[in-house]
Amino acid sequence: MWKSTWLPPSQTFVRDQLAAMTRWAPLRLGVRDVPDALVHADRAPFGPGRVGRAAHRLSAATGHRGVYDRVLRERGARLVHAHFGTSAVGVLPVARRLGLPLVVTFHGYDVTREPGRGAAGARYVERLRDVFAYADTLLAVSDHLAGRLVDLGAPEHKVRVHHVGIPVEAAAPPVTVRDGVVLVGRLVDVKGPRDLVAAAARLPEPYRGVPVRVVGDGPLARVLADDATAAGVHLELLGRLPSPHVAAELARAAVFCGPSRTTAEGQEEAFGIVFLEAALHGLPVVAYRHGGVPEAVVDGVTGLLAPEGDVDALAAHLGSLLADPARAATLGAAGRARVLRDFDVRTQTARLEEVYDEVVARAAVRRYST
Question: Do the record's keywords include Cell inner membrane (predicted)?
Answer without folding.
Answer: no
